[in-house]
C-alpha cells in the first residue's frame, strides 16, 4: 500500500524530526497545502502526513517552463501515493511580466480553491532561507520601511496562511528528505539570476557570508524574529483606533511619530487603500499637522484623504474627478 | 583676518546650505566638535562656524598611520584659521586590535575632554552614508537584533552626542565643500578593505546598487528613520518600569513578547549589565516563565539574575563565586 510505504521509516535525525513535527502538529487538522514539487514543499507534505494530517494538495502550474507540466504530474502522483485529494490549475497564459504577478496568480488560485473546497487554512513551505531572502528583498526595495520577513501566520485574501517551516533551514530540509528517502523535482528557474530573489540567494547571501560574517544568515533570521514580534506589539497598540471611521487630529498629533505612522498605515489598509507607502503615511501626517481643515490629498487606488477641522476621513474619488493634490 | 576669510562666501547651493545650516543651528551654542580632518568633519566644522557657533575643536590621533601626525597638525591649523580653541590627544600606543577598540579610545578622549572643559555637548560628523553602513554592519553582526543605524541624539559616557548631518549624503558634503572652497585630508585607511566598514562602503553597497536596486541606499536610509522612531516609541513604553529595582514576573508574563524583550533589555542596561545580547534577554524571559522562584543565571559583566517567587532581581557576583548557570 503506497500510503503505508510513504509514511514508514527511515526516520530523519530525531532532533530534526522533533523540530519539524512539533510545528506541523499545531496546524489545524483540516487544511490545504501548496506543493510546487520542489524539495521544500515535498518535505512539508511528508511532515504533515507523518504527523497524522490529511491535507488537500494544491498545485499551480505557472506554465513558465516547458517541463512545468511534468511538475504538475509529479505532484499529482505524489498526492496519490499518500492517498490525498489533489487539485491543480494552470495559468491561463504563459506570458508573465514579473515574479510579483506570478505570485498574485498563485494566491488567487489558492483563494479560489479555498472557497470551492470550504477550507481556509493553507500550509506553505517557506523556510528560514526564504525568510532571510525575503527580509533582504524588503530592505532593498523602496517600500521596505516595514521589512521584517514573513510571518508564521497571516490572513490574506480570506486565507489563513501557515508557514510552519519558517525557522527551519534548507540544509535541514535536505537532511530530512534524505533520511525519509523523499524525491522531488528541481526547478531550474531557481538558478536563473534574472530573478531578483535568485540573485539574493545565489549572489548576495554567499557574498555576505564570505566577506562579512559566516553567521550573517543567522543574524538576519534573529532580526526577523525580533522585528515580527515588535510589529505585532505595535500593531496591537493601534488596532482599535485604526478601526474607527476617521482619524482624530488631536489624538494623532499627541502620539509619538512612530505610533502615528503605524496607526495611519493600518487605518489606510483597513479601509482598502492598496500598497500603502511611507509617502502616503507621511502625507496624511502632514494633513494632520495643518492648522485647520479643508485640505485634501490623493492616495493610491483612487482614494483621497480629506481633512476637516477635527478629523481626517477617506473617500473614493468619483469617476472623472480630477486628481486632487496637496497643493490644490 | 583668518576667521572672516573662512566664513565668507562662496556659498554652497542654497538648498544644501539651508538643509545643513537648519540642522546645525539647532545645536547648543556651547559645544565640542570632533574633527578628524576628513571631508565630513571639515564640512561640519565650517557649517557650525557659518551658523554662528564657536565650538571647541577636538582631535584624537590614533597613531595608526605614519601621516596621522600631519592630520593632527592640519586640524590644529584649521581650528586656528577659524579662531577656535583646539585640543588634541595621541593614543598611548599604536597597537590596536580592532576598529571597536579604536572607537572606544576616541570616545574615552572625548569624555575626558568634556569633563576637563566642562562641556557635555559634542557634535559628530556622521552622515547618511555612514548611517547606511552602520545599519548594514549591525544587521550582519550577531547582535544586530536592534539594528537601526545611529541616532541624531544620544547619551553616552556622560556626553550628549549630536549628529546633525546624519541625513545628509556624502555627495552633498562634497558639493558643500567645493562651493565653500574647503580643504581636507584624505584618510588612506578608508580605502583599506581589511576593515569591515570599508568593505561595506566599497564592496557591499556598490554591489547592492548595481545588482539589486540603484535606490538601495535611500531605501535603507528610510528604514533607519522609521526604525529609530519606532525604537523611541517602544522604549518610551517600558522606560518607567525599567527603572524599578526588580522585574515583576506577573507583569512580564502578561506583556506581549516584544514588550518583554524591550523591557528586559532596558532594565538590564539601566542596571549596568554591559553588551546585553538577545541571549541574555531570552534567558531572563525563561527565568520569568519558570513556575516558581529559586533559580538564577549568569549574565555578562559579572552579573547574575535571581528569580524569587514574584520578581527577578540582579546582583553582582561575589569575588571568587563560581559561575552560576541556569542548570545549577
Biggest interface and residues each:
A-B, 42 and 42 residues
Strand count, sense and barrel status of the largest sheet of chain A are: 6 strands, mixed
Number of helices of chain A: 12
Specify the oligomeric state.
homodimer
Strand order of the largest sheet of chain A: 3-2-1-4-6-5
Distance between the termini of chain A: 73 Å
CATH class of the largest domain in chain A: Alpha Beta
Give the full name of the CATH homologous superfamily of the largest domain in chain A. Answer: HUPs
| Rough outline of chain A | globular
> How many β-strand stretches of chain A?
10
Give the fraction of residues assigned to helices of chain A: 40-55%
Beta-strand percent range of chain A: 5-15%
Secondary-structure content class of chain A = alpha/beta
* Average pLDDT taken over every residue of chain A: 90
**Could you tell me the radius of gyration of chain A in angstroms?**
23 Å
Give helix and strand order of chain A, one letter per element, not per position.
HHEHEHEHEHEEHHHEHHHEEE
- CATH architecture label name of the largest domain in chain A: 3-Layer(aba) Sandwich
CATH topology name of the largest domain in chain A, in short, is Rossmann fold
Weakly predicted, low-confidence segments of chain A:
1-6, 323-328
Number of domains of chain A: 2
Binding site for ATP (chains A, B): 36-41
Enzyme class (chains A, B): ligase
Domain tRNA(Ile)-lysidine synthase substrate-binding (chains A, B): 247-310
Pfam families (chains A, B): ATP_bind_3, TilS
Amino acid at each position: 500500500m503506497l500510503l503505508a510505504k510513504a509514511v514508514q521509516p527511515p526516520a530523519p535525525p530525531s532532533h530534526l524530526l522533533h523540530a519539524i513535527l512539533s510545528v506541523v502538529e499545531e496546524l489545524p487538522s483540516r487544511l490545504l497545502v501548496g506543493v510546487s514539487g520542489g524539495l521544500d514543499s515535498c518535505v512539508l507534505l511528508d511532515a504533515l502526513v507523518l504527523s497524522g494530517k490529511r491535507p488537500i494538495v494544491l498545485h499551480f502550474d505557472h506554465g513558465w517552463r516547458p517541463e512545468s507540466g511534468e511538475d504538475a504530474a509529479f505532484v499529482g502522483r505524489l498526492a496519490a501515493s499518500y492517498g490525498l485529494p489533489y487539485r491543480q490549475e494552470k495559468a491561463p497564459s504563459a506570458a508573465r511580466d514579473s515574479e510579483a504577478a506570478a505570485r498574485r496568480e498563485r494566491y488567487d488560485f489558492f483563494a479560489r480553491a479555498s472557497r470551492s473546497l470550504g477550507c481556509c487554512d493553507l500550509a506553505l513551505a517557506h523556510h528560514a532561507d526564504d525568510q532571510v531572502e525575503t527580509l533582504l528583498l524588503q530592505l532593498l526595495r523602496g517600500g521596505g520601511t516595514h521589512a521584517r520577513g514573513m510571518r508564521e501566520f497571516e490572513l490574506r485574501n480570506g486565507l489563513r496562511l501557515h508557514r510552519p517551516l519558517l525557522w527551519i533551514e534548507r540544509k535541514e530540509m535536505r537532511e530530512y528528505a534524505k533520511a525519509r528517502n523523499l524525491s522531488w523535482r528541481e526547478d531550474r528557474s531557481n538558478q536563473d539570476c534574472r530573478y531578483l530573489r535568485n540573485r539574493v540567494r545565489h549572489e548576495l547571501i554567499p557574498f555576505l557570508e564570505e566577506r562579512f560574517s559566516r553567521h550573517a544568515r543567522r543574524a538576519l533570521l534573529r532580526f526577523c524574529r525580533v522585528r515580527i514580534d515588535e510589529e505585532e506589539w505595535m500593531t496591537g497598540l493601534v488596532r482599535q483606533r485604526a478601526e474607527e471611521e476617521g482619524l482624530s487630529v488631536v489624538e494623532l498629533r499627541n502620539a509619538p511619530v512612530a505610533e502615528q505612522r503605524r496607526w495611519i498605515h493600518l487605518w489606510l489598509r483597513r479601509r482598502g487603500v492598496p500598497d500603502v507607502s511611507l509617502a502616503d503615511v507621511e502625507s496624511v501626517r502632514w494633513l494632520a499637522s495643518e492648522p485647520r481643515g479643508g485640505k485634501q490629498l490623493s492616495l493610491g487606488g483612487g482614494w483621497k484623504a480629506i481633512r476637516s477641522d477635527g478629523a481626517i476621513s477617506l473617500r473614493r474619488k468619483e469617476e472623472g474627478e480630477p486628481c486632487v493634490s496637496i497643493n490644490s
